[in-house]
């Protein structure tokens, strides 16, 4: 049995994970967490419900520098519901390190998000349209973004967000770690990863397992 204690995680993160009732890391977490902790790019294919969120939320909470005032990680999700869910998972895992996550999504007042963005935030989770809007209007400073996660990439492309995702990536610092997660890998996703990722480690969890 593999235990979360085998990863290089600080006690504050391990305690939060334990309180979530996660005793053993799932297969995708076993494979992805050590790679992200080494700041390597990853392309991950693993089915829905396999625990992909904690596989990036855990190392992100570990890696972000609490002292830094500007956002250091950006997670893109296809829907508002997912943005909220991922933001909650990050808040839970980062609880004892006091990691501040913020969800940004459309059809919600821009002004309120603008105000929230004036507060110290470590990790931004959002849908592509609204995130791009904030970057372009100067209300979201991406100059310190070191980590980019493209979550549910297949859904993201099915919903027609490719152009916006690419526009966002082009505005981010070049030196960063990029992680792409998907339940399925299409040619379009592979193309996206080869275009914007550097020597990505490919992790595919077999659906039959
Ligand atoms: P995916 O993104 O792969 O579809 P999620 O990250 O949403 O999957 O996780 C699915 C469910 O499994 C969630 O309810 C989550 O809380 C739970 N979960 C994640 N990791 C673990 C773990 N190591 N042990 C037990 N439950 C877990
Ligand atoms: Mg997911």
Note the topology.
Layout: H1 11-19, H2 27-37, E1 42-45, H3 52-63, E2 73-76, H4 80-93, E3 101-104, H5 110-116, E4 123-126, H6 128-136, E5 147-150, H7 153-158, H8 162-171, E6 177-182, H9 187-196, E7 201-204
Parallel strand pairs: 1-6, 1-7, 2-4, 2-5, 3-4, 5-6
Helix pairs in contact: 2-3, 3-4, 6-8
Bound molecules: adenosine-5'-diphosphate and magnesium ion.
Family: Belongs to the DEAD box helicase family. DbpA subfamily.
Protein name: ATP-dependent RNA helicase DbpA
Subcellular location: Cytoplasm
What labels would you give this structure?
single chain, 209 residues, alpha/beta, 9 helices, 42% helix, binds adenosine-5'-diphosphate, binds magnesium ion, ATP-dependent RNA helicase DbpA
Descriptive notes:
This protein is of the alpha/beta class and 209 residues long. It has helices at 11-19, 27-37, 52-63, 80-93, 110-116, 128-136, 153-158, 162-171, 187-196, and strands spanning 42-45, 73-76, 101-104, 123-126, 147-150, 177-182, 201-204. The chain has a seven-stranded parallel β-sheet. α5 (110-116) links the parallel β3 and β4 (123-126). The two termini are 16 Å apart. The mean pLDDT is 96. Bound molecules: adenosine-5'-diphosphate and magnesium ion. Residues 52-53, 151-152 line the site of magnesium ion. Residues 22, 24-26, 29, 46, 48-54 line the site of adenosine-5'-diphosphate.
């Amino acid at each position: 049995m593999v235990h979360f204690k085998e990863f290089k995680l600080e006690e504050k993160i391990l305690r939060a994970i334990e309180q979530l009732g996660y005793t053993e890391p799932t297969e995708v977490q076993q494979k992805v967490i050590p790679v992200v902790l080494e700041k390597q790019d990853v392309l991950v294919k693993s089915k829905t419900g396999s625990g992909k969120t904690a596989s990036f939320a855990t190392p992100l909470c570990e890696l972000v520098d609490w002292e830094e005032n500007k956002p250091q990680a950006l997670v893109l999700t296809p829907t508002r519901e997912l943005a909220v869910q991922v933001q909650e998972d990050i808040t839970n895992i980062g609880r004892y390190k006091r990691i501040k996550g913020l969800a940004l999504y459309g059809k919600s007042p821009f002004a309120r998000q603008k105000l929230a963005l004036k507060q110290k935030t470590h990790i931004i989770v959002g849908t592509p349209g609204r995130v791009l809007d904030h970057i372009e209007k100067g209300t979201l400073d991406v100059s310190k973004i070191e980590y980019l996660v493209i979550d549910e990439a297949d859904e993201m492309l099915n919903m027609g967000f490719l152009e916006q995702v690419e526009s966002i990536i082009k505005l981010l610092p070049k030196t960063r770690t990029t992680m792409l997660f998907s339940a399925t890998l299409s040619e379009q996703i592979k193309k996206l990863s080869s275009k914007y990722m550097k020597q990505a480690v490919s992790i595919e969890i077999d659906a039959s397992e």
